C-alpha cells in the first residue's frame, strides 16, 4: 500500500496531483497530510479507515503545503490560524471537488483534503441501502406538505448524501425550493442555494428569516447548530413549509431530546416533527471473496433475542486482490421513525424519557441494531461492524457484566419479541428459532 515518489526528479506539483488523483481512484474520502518530526506522513481514509499512503521529506513539506493552499485559494502567508478552501477542477480526466482545511500544530500545519463524491446522491433514494419498509417510510415522509424531516448521525455518516437524494426527489418545476448551507456542497439545478457567511453576519438564523419571505415550498437547512436555528426551523415547518435538516445525534430518541434541550417549545415540536432518519455507515463485504462461516454462541444469542430465529451461518471477510482486507465500499444502516399521534401527544405532554423511549420503539420502527443485523444476514456486512457501530463492544475485555448491560439496553430499544417463529428478511425466510437451546443465564462471548 505504501507508495514512494522520486522527489529528486518529480516536481512537487506533480506529487500533489498524483496523491489526490490516486486517492480518488482508490475510493478515499479524505487525504491527511500529518506533519511529524522526521517527515510528513500522508494517510488516506478508505471505507472509514485511515491507512498509511506515503511519506514526504521535511525539506519538501513547506512546498507541498504551499501548493495545496494555492490551488484551494488559501492565504499562503498565514500559518498561525486555521483556514478553509476548496478546489473544483478536472485533472487527468478525473473531476475533482475538494474541501481543504488547514490546522496549525506544534510540528507545523496539518492539511486535510475531503474528496466529495455525489454519485450516490444523483442515483436517488432507492440506491442508498434502505430496506423495503424504510424506503416506503421515506417516500411517505417526502410526500408531506409541511413539517420537519431530520437526517441525523455522526460526522461522515452520509447525512448529506441522504439529504441531497431527498432534494433530488423533491426538486420539481412547480416547487420553490431554497437551501441554506455552510458550505454549499453540491450545485443542483432548480434549487436556490444560499451560502452562509458568518463573518458578515449572514448566519443560518438571519438567512432563514429572509427565506420565509421568499414564498418557499421546501426549505433545506444544512445543519441545526443552535437554539435560534432550531426554533426558526420548527416554526417554518408549521406555517406550511416542508423543512429538511441534519442534526448530530445517534438515534430517534436522542434527536427528540436534543431539540427539547435546545428550548424548542414542546407543543411546536409535537406538531412540526414528521420523521427522523438516523444512520451510520458500515464497511461493506467484498462480494468477490466473502465466505460463509458458522455463527458463534454470542451471535446466536444476539440473533435469537432480536429476531427470535436461530442463525447458523453468516458471511465473513476473506480478502482478495480487488479489496485487500475483505471490505469494499460502505453500506448505510438506518433507523427511520415516522412520528405518529401517540408520540406527538407524549412530546407535548412532557412524558418521562423512559415512557418516550417505550413509545418510540414500540412504533413501526426498525432500529439501527435490527437493520444492521438484517444486513449481516443478507451478506452486506459483518456482525463485528454492526457491533462496533452501535457501541456494544467498546467495553474492555473482562468487563462482561457491563458489556451485557449495554447489550440489553440496545435490545430493549429493538422491541424484541421472545416468541419463536419464521422471519422473512428481503424475501428470504430465516429458520425457525430453537429458543430452548438458548441459555439466558450464560454470559455472552466477547468478540475480538
What this model shows, in words?
The protein has 448 residues and is an alpha/beta fold. It is built from 15 helices and 17 strands. The protein has helices at 12-25, 58-71, 119-123, 132-142, 159-170, 204-211, 227-237, 252-261, 266-272, 297-307, 341-349, 353-362, 368-377, 383-389, 400-413, and strands spanning 28-35, 39-46, 49-57, 83-91, 94-105, 108-115, 147-152, 177-181, 192-195, 218-221, 242-247, 273-285, 291-294, 313-316, 327-338, 423-425, 428-430. The strands form 4 sheets. A 7-stranded mixed β-sheet has the order 9-8-10-11-7-12-15, with helices on both faces. Strands 3-2-1-6-5-4 form a 6-stranded antiparallel β-sheet. The protein has a two-stranded antiparallel ribbon with strand order 13-14. Strand 5 and strand 6 form a beta hairpin. The longest helix is centred in the first third of the chain and has 14 residues, at 12-25. The chain is globular, with a radius of gyration of 24 Å.
Strand order of the largest sheet: 9-8-10-11-7-12-15
Q: Count of DSSP helices? A: 15
* Strand fraction: 25-35%
How many beta-strand elements?
Answer: 17
Could you say which structural class the secondary elements and strand pairing correspond to?
alpha/beta
Helix content: 25-40%
User: Biggest β-sheet: count, sense, barrel?
Assistant: 7 strands, mixed
End-to-end CA span: 25 Å
**Average predicted local confidence, pLDDT:** 84
Keywords:
448 residues; 15 helices; 6-stranded antiparallel β-sheet; alpha/beta
Brief summary of the model shown:
With 448 residues, the protein is α/β, with parallel strands linked by helices.
